[in-house]
Amino acid sequence: MSYKSYFNISYRATELNTSLNKGTLHGIPKLATKTEMSSPITSRFFRAVHDQLLPALFGGPRPVQQRSFASDTEGSQGVTLRRGRMEDVPGVWQVTEEAKWNMHQDVVETHFKMSNNGWIIAEKDGNIVGCLLTYKFNDDLRTAGHLIMSPKMRGYGVGGKLMMTFLEEFGDANVHASLTKQMFDTYERYTGVPLSMGKVVGKYSGVFKNTPLPPDAERSYRLLDVTKIDQSDLIDYDASYHGVPRPEKLKLWLGQTTAETLVLLEKGKIAGYGSIRPAMNGFSLGPLYAENTIGTMVLFKALVDLIPRDSNVDILMPYANEAGQEILKANESTVKLFDTYQKFALKCYSPPPKWNNVFSLFSNACGKC
């Protein structure tokens, strides 16, 4: 079954719940021209330009009595809160640009599609000044992220208003999230309960010039474009990491026109997959899942080979990944750690089944890993 025909089928799959992130975002200019890259696998990418990224993640609701969302509630400093809709993508992207996240507009649009009716928008004088994404995995598990306030509105309580609105509606669910260590006390005050701590992730950015592969290691593997494989096999493989199938989510994330996704095969079976897409400062790589260290490196090298040489690449990498630590050591002069983030849950943190095999996260806004 082909990739496009498979994903035209409607699936009813168990939904998962996304993690609450907060960040300072990066500026986003207009889309660059699409180019063809010379590679063992044909690649189409947008070249991306601009200066530095400053991301930080966000998390954390508390259990409160669930109540319905008010469609137009008065917020701080004349701000009103309402449900988001697809026509809000340009406005959210503009706030993302102002806040300086290293993110492409395609990602904002895809997050809107993934979360469906799960955006809360803060608006003032007809302009979007903040937002929060929520994503439902199932009735007990929800994540949230893409919490942004316009720099002009910081200090006026807009972020707190967004967060408390989220808590009032969805606080009974277990919420997985990420945050920087210096934010623990702040979000525990919001949630009113101790956070259930999880795994540690590093935000790395730089030019990856070296992949420390043993000689002939690549001969044991085959790499295919995602469109060339049976998509039901890919969905099953992805579910082994997240614990539940999520075909519609994969359809949206891997189907972005600006993304490139490769699948790693070993002895004819899927042994990993990874995706890379443009950001405004270079590229963002994620997810990358693979069964072992060598396979991870083979897949990582293939993805990096698809982009222009010496491009900046951003990765959200779990500290537990062995291949990641070896690749970082081999590129220590050109790749730097930006910040450290802690996974947590409001009620009980449950690590993904194959966390140690995660080289790079799927999405901090719409994924457990």
UniProtKB/TrEMBL annotation:
<dbReference type="InterPro" id="IPR041496">
    <property type="entry name" value="YitH/HolE_GNAT"/>
</dbReference>
<protein>
    <submittedName>
        <fullName>Uncharacterized protein LOC106177675</fullName>
    </submittedName>
</protein>
<feature type="domain" description="N-acetyltransferase">
    <location>
        <begin position="79"/>
        <end position="218"/>
    </location>
</feature>
<dbReference type="InterPro" id="IPR016181">
    <property type="entry name" value="Acyl_CoA_acyltransferase"/>
</dbReference>
<dbReference type="Pfam" id="PF18014">
    <property type="entry name" value="Acetyltransf_18"/>
</dbReference>
<dbReference type="GO" id="GO:0016747">
    <property type="term" value="F:acyltransferase activity, transferring groups other than amino-acyl groups"/>
</dbReference>
<dbReference type="Pfam" id="PF00583">
    <property type="entry name" value="Acetyltransf_1"/>
</dbReference>
<dbReference type="InterPro" id="IPR052729">
    <property type="entry name" value="Acyl/Acetyltrans_Enzymes"/>
</dbReference>
<dbReference type="InterPro" id="IPR000182">
    <property type="entry name" value="GNAT_dom"/>
</dbReference>
